TrEMBL record:
Organism, scientific name: Streptomyces asoensis
SUPFAM superfamilies: Glycoside hydrolase/deacetylase (SSF88713)
Entry keyword Hydrolase: yes
Protein name per its UniProtKB record: Hydrolase
Segments passing through the bilayer: none
């Protein structure tokens, strides 16, 4: 899977600090998006506002930073929901008091609306991960990209009972300028990652844990998977790495929007 390295959160903080225009733009986006609970609160979700109103636009830039600041990490969980593994991931997150961002595949969300609702009820956030997880969608027509993103947005929102996805993550990182602009226009911030645990390759729990320990200093957004195969290693790794991260002084947040 393609990485989105090179733009760690230090870089973004620095860019904001030196650019008055960037600061002003970021402030206006934040103001437009901040919810009544302050945005970083665990249960804050993008609920539909007045009937027929469009969601507020967000930045088209691929996000890596955390709303929680420089000492927060973003736990992101991709490709579900899955009836066997998503409940186990929810258990380990709850046991550790961690809120995460779930990048859901539209067909999976439609098939398991109870799990989508459970994710929302536990205070996690939703992310649009397209209808069919086509990692070469960046090579395909805009009409196809649009269908993949907007149909998944609808499927996830219907499954959740009206809670919208707040992010868009292209499968395998196959973003295009068009897809980022489209997602942002729907209030879904393009979402990258810094640490690819490669848990989908089942390298062993110890290897997944070691990857996080060695790479987390390079950026706060960490990628795991709760579907697409047997995920006992992922569940076990989360059970080890979440307490370790806390011991290291990290907190847990959501990606910036
Ligand atoms: Zn994926």
């Amino acid at each position: 899977m393609a990485r989105h390295g090179g733009r760690g959160w230090y870089g973004r903080v620095l860019a904001a600090a030196v650019g008055v225009t960037a600061v002003a733009a970021a402030t206006s986006v934040w103001t437009a998006q901040a919810g009544p609970a302050g945005g970083s609160q665990a249960g804050a979700q993008a609920r539909p506002s007045a009937a027929g109103s469009a969601p507020a636009k967000v930045s088209v830039d691929i996000a890596h930073a955390s709303e929680g600041g420089a000492h927060a990490v973003n736990i992101t969980i991709d490709d579900g929901p899955d009836p066997e593994w998503t409940p186990k991931v929810l258990d380990v997150l709850r046991e550790n008091g961690v809120k995460a961002t779930f990048c859901m595949v539209g067909t999976q969300a439609k098939a398991h609306p109870d799990l989508v609702k459970a994710v929302v009820a536990a205070g996690h956030r939703l992310c649009d991960h397209t209808v069919s997880h086509d990692t070469s969608m960046d090579k395909k027509p805009e009409s196809y990209q649009s269908q993949q993103i907007l149909d998944a947005e609808r499927m996830i929102t219907e499954a959740s009972g009206g809670v919208r996805p707040q992010y868009y993550r292209a499968p395998g990182g196959a973003f295009t300028p068009y897809s980022r602009t489209l997602a942002a226009s729907r209030g879904m911030r393009p979402l990258g990652w810094n640490v690819d645990t490669k848990d989908f390759e089942r390298p062993g729990t110890a290897a997944i844990v070691a990857t996080v320990k060695s790479e987390v200093a390079g950026g706060p957004t960490i990628l795991f998977h709760d579907a697409g195969g047997e995920r006992s290693q992922t569940v076990a790794a989360l059970g080890e790495i979440l307490p370790w991260l806390r011991q290291q002084g990290y907190t847990f947040g959501f990606p910036v929007r």
